[in-house]
Structure formats: structure tokens, C-alpha cells
Design a protein that fits this description.
By secondary structure, the protein is mainly alpha-helical. The protein is 56% helix and 6% strand. 30% of the residues are buried.
Amino acid sequence: VEWARGGMITYRKRFGGLFLLLQGSGSSALRAVVPAAISAALALWMNEVQYISKPRNYMEHPYPYQIFAFLLGFGLVFRTNMAYARYQQAIQHASFMTSKWGDAALQTHNFIVATATTPSSDLLKAEVLRLFSLMHALAHLKFRGDYHLDHLSFDADSESIKGHTFPSTWEGKTIRVVGSDEAPGPLTSVACPNRSSDVKRYFARNTLPVLGGHALSSAEKQVLEEAEDKVFVVMRWLVECLVQHGHAKGFGVEPPIVSRIYQVLSDGMVGYNQARKLTEIPFPFPYAQLVLMFLVVYALSLPFVVVAWVETRAAIACFSFFPVWAYFSVNEVNRQLEEPFLHAPNDLPCPAFQRDFNKRLSSLSFRRPDGGDASFFSCNPRSGMFFSSLHARNGAGAISPSEGQNGKTTQGHVGGGLFATTTVGGAADVDGSSVGMEMMGRV
């Protein structure tokens, strides 16, 4: 078992997953040992001092107590279902947000490229990608309840961007106190895995990288620090850049197609707000409190039942320890799933999501191997041959080759319809392949 780079715990499933029994980091079972041990110790003490001389006199049958145990079990099952639903919704909405904003970045980049390739357009593309990366990083800061802009990273060579945020000696060996500078002991790790000071250190060590290579300007930082919804502010900056470019130079595509950028941006904002509500709206307090009260009563009352029906010390210790341990372990899993972005190391890895999104944005700088200036037919000669044979089968006659000059147009029939082929930057061959760019369509 080991840490994923900046992400969740990964583990092997060989030998029926038996190696999982040796894993302490991220385990909820170890955190349930303390209440279970208290229950077992109480039962042994009651047995030793013979607190009840004739146990069976006060409990002839354990059925009344079983009703309470069943009620507690059903309460934990319902809480587990709701906690896992919150966890799955967080994954779904965060992924939806990332997907939509990635699509918007792709469309914006290509629409700017279609306008012109000038130094000003290159600067605009860089600024747009920086704003997309910043908006995505601020969204994940919000998800994990982090309000410090200093936890953004702008250094492309920092360890946080490379993904290695914890000493390698900790990986998969013990439960850790989040963000501590020293390897934790098992007691401190189990007793206080998510103290506020530890969470703050965890946020400081796991910064979210932002593309651009330079930090926020003083004006940007001041505005974002004063804003209640930082993501909304950055989205406003992004839309403003697009609107200004549209008014100044326009886009190289039709306005209805450009409107898709704003639609996809809005869809991504829907995903952001859906994931955000899971961090701002906690699991219902009455339900969480009631389950915890049932667990405490169960841990303190179970020794009475065990001592009443079990005589040997070993059996008393086991039957008092394991039921309490099992119930508290399940409840600990629920506590972590209810807050998907908070409880490390089982939280959803916001830094890893941000690095993946940055890689997606960086991939927009890669052009097609042919430079993007050749037609579909020159990249795929077989497709050109297919259309050429299609002309022959329809009796429209062969396509007359152009004279090798830009702007020449030839016409023919495909399936009874008239089509036009315009050759740009090269000559068209009879077999349908071309050296330049061909634009085909019905006329």
C-alpha cells in the first residue's frame, strides 16, 4: 500500500487483499480501538470486583437489549448510505466542473487561433489559460475549506506541482498527523487525525499549482481577498477578456458557435456550485448527534450484558471489545465520507485534480504533426480515394484537376448533389488526394 502522488491511497488486491490488514495509514479501524478498549476494560473490571453477585437475576434474556443494538445498526446503515452518496456526488460534480471548463478552454484557445496568429493573440491565449487554471484552483480551495491565497503555487519547479508533498519514509507505513514535520506516533495519529492546526499545515504543504509562471498581481490579490466568491470573480475576468477580444477582433468562427464557450463555462459553474454545497452544508446535526449518543450508550451498556451471560475472562474481553470496535469503525468511515474534501488521506485529492487540469491546459500547445495546415484528405489519403471512387460510382465523372493555383474551384456531383472543392495552397489530384488544403461542402 502506498500514497498516490499527491492523491489518495492506492493498494494492491493480491492474495485476496490480505496486505490491507497491515495498512495503518488512513484506516478507520485503528481510531475505533480506544472506545472498544474502554468497553472491554469496564467489562473485565465488573467481572473482577463482582459488581453483580448474581448476574442472571437482572437479565433473564438479552432480547430487550438486542432491540437497541438493532436500532443502532440500522442507524449506522442509513448514515453510511447518505455519507457514501455525498462522497459520490462530490466526485461527480467536481469531475463535471473540470470537464466543462476543460472544454471551454479548448474551444476558446482554438477560436482565438482561428482569428489570427499574432503576438497579441498569443498573449491573450496565455492569459485565458492562466485564468482557467486560477479559476479551477480557487474552486478546489473552496471545496476543501481553504481561504488562503498563499496556498496557491505559481512556481513550475516547486515540489507541490511535481506532486511529492510528504516525506517518502511515511508512505504506507503509519497513520500520520496531517502536515506534521515529524513522523507521528500511533496514539497522536489515532486520537487527533484532523485537528485544525494539522489541517492548516496540510493545506500549506499541499498547494494548488496555477499556470502562468508568475504570482498574482497586488491588485488581483487584493480583489480576490475581498471577494466572497473568488471563483465567480475570476470567471467574470475571463468572460471580460473574451468579450473584449470579440469586440476588437472577433473570432474566426460564427457567433452562434462562439456562444458555446459561455454555455460550457456556465455548465462548469453549475458543477462547481453543486460540489460547493457539499462543503458548505454539513451532514444533518441531529442525525450525527443521535448516532453518536447511541454509540456511547452501547459502549457503556454492553459490558453489563456480557458479564451477565459470559463467565470466562477471555470471552468477556472479546465480546465486549469487538462489537463496540465494529460499530465505531463504521461510524468513523461515515465521518470521513461525509466531508469528501477534508479528512486526509482519504479525502478527494484537490492538488492532484489541479495538476491534472493544468496538464490538460498545457496540452493545448501541441499542434498537429503536420502543423495544422494540411487538409483532412492530405492527412488521410484513403479518405480522398474513397470520395474519388464515390464520384465514379455515381456517374458524375472524374474530378477535373485544378490548375495548381489558389482559389480554383471545381464542381461535381455526389449522390445527385452538387459539391464544390476549393483548392488552397496546392494542387488536387484526380484520385482525391491533395497537397494543399481543400474545403468541401454542398452548394
